[in-house]
């Protein structure tokens, strides 16, 4: 698979587009409005309310900005000021990290189990597990587990990411020790700072999008804007040096990068409700507060026989998987296919969908097809959906 990343301005805002085999697979707005909190930022917050009946607390991280926090995520936190003897009390000040950005009517969510994410590993404060990405080949995964035995004395939890598969033992352990030192420095800093201090900003706006890119499969990172190029170069020099040789500056003034790859049309399509497929059939994608519904319609496709319906459904499964990843949809997803008949068709469709979501770096589970012939899918929440991210970025329509 040929995978490249393209950073360009579309509608006066920078985006990072991940292109796989000539098709846009992911879209990441770079940066957001200044008045929003961003996933990964770390603050010293103050507990404003504790609600045992819903097992939640509300923690203020900026004056007037209260965030939801599950009690299970707060009681074992790093406290800078304790107001009472209970595990969590109103007035307590503790270090929290933005877990989810505000979406719709929902407030941002934070957790006291703060973590630092690097290209090769994730360190967490209260989760003491030592783990390795399941996407790493089994033999290599077991080898890395033996390497981690040298980190048994650590006070942090460690998860080794997929990118670490190409590292030597020395390189991985050096990266872990570097992360540990950064983490301890942050905690020491928290002891001397006042409430509402931002201990860690989101950093270079494009870094979050780059973290999920596999170094082994990324062929090029193309950037057009000179200032954006310098930002990427500085970030890669300090955090991802192995990607530096793939960073390229695009300088054709006659054919801008967004025109070369039709990025404006790709963005508009990723935000539209209706998606046409080659067969003439189409999908209607409708996110709601509780779940996302995808309806498959035969449209202009020639249908009538069971075999024709199955072919449309198989095409729709592949396109639905693509759109779920492209739009960063998460939570519960229901897909209403057309004219399912027989157990064999259901099995074929489930198998096709599971194969289609396998390339998604975000955990996606294809559950089953219900008695109402709705396919059930769940996808881990990883940041906000693309539509919400675009709105927060302040992109012009």
Explain this structure to me?
The chain is of the alpha+beta class and 397 residues long. It folds into 3 domains: 3-31 and 202-263, eRF1 domain 2 (Nucleotidyltransferase, domain 5, 2-Layer Sandwich); 38-198, Beta Barrel (OB fold (Dihydrolipoamide Acetyltransferase, E2P)), CATH 2.40.50.140; 273-379, Aminopeptidase (3-Layer(aba) Sandwich), CATH 3.40.630. The chain contains 9 helices and 22 strands. The chain has helices at 138-148, 169-190, 207-211, 226-239, 257-260, 263-271, 306-326, 343-357, 386-393, and strands at 3-10, 13-20, 23-29, 42-51, 56-62, 65-70, 79-81, 93-100, 109-111, 115-117, 121-124, 130-132, 157-160, 198-200, 218-223, 247-249, 274-276, 282-287, 291-297, 331-336, 364-369, 374-379. The strands form 4 sheets. Strands 4, 5, 6, 7, 8, 9 and 14 form a 7-stranded antiparallel β-sheet that branches. A 6-stranded mixed β-sheet has the order 17-18-19-20-22-21, with helices on one face. Strand 1 (3-10) and strand 2 form a beta hairpin. Helix 7 (306-326) runs parallel beside helix 8. The chain is globular. Its cofactor is Mg(2+).
């Amino acid at each position: 698979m040929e995978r490249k990343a393209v950073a360009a301005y579309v509608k006066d805002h920078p985006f990072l587009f991940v292109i796989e085999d000539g098709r846009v697979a992911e879209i990441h707005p770079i940066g957001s409005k200044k008045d929003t909190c961003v996933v990964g930022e770390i603050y010293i917050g103050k507990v404003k309310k504790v609600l045992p009946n819903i097992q939640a607390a509300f923690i203020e991280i900026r004056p007037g900005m209260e965030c939801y926090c599950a009690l299970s995520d707060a009681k074992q936190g790093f406290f800078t000021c304790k107001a009472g003897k209970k595990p969590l009390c109103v007035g307590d000040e503790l270090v929290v990290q933005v877990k989810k950005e505000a979406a719709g009517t929902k407030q941002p969510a934070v957790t006291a189990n703060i973590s630092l994410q690097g290209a090769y590993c994730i360190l967490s404060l209260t989760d003491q597990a030592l783990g390795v990405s399941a996407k790493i080949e089994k033999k290599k995964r077991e080898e890395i587990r033996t390497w981690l035995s040298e980190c048994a004395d650590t006070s942090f939890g460690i998860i080794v990411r997929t990118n670490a598969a190409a590292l030597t033992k020395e390189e991985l352990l050096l990266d872990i020790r570097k992360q540990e030192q950064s983490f301890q420095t942050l905690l020491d800093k928290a002891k001397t700072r006042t409430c509402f201090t931002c201990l860690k900003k989101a950093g270079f706006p494009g870094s979050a999008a780059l973290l999920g890119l596999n170094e082994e499969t990324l062929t090029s990172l193309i950037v057009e804007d000179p200032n954006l190029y310098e930002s990427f170069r500085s970030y890669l020099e300090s955090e991802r040096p192995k990607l530096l040789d793939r960073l390229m500056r695009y300088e054709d003034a006659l054919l801008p990068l967004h025109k070369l790859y039709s990025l404006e049309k790709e963005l508009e399509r990723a935000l539209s409700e209706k998606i046409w497929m080659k067969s003439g059939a189409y999908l209607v994608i409708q996110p709601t507060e509780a779940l996302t519904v995808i309806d498959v319609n035969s449209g202009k496709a020639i249908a009538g026989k069971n075999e024709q319906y199955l072919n449309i459904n198989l095409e729709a499964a592949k396109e639905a998987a693509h759109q779920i990843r492209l739009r960063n949809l998460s939570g519960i997803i229901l897909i209403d296919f057309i004219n399912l008949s027989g157990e064999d068709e259901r099995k074929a469709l489930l198998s096709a969908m599971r194969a289609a979501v396998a390339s998604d770096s975000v955990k996606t589970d294809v559950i089953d097809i219900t008695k109402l012939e709705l396919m059930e899918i769940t996808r881990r929440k990883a940041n906000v959906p693309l539509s919400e991210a675009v709105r927060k970025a302040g992109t012009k329509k």
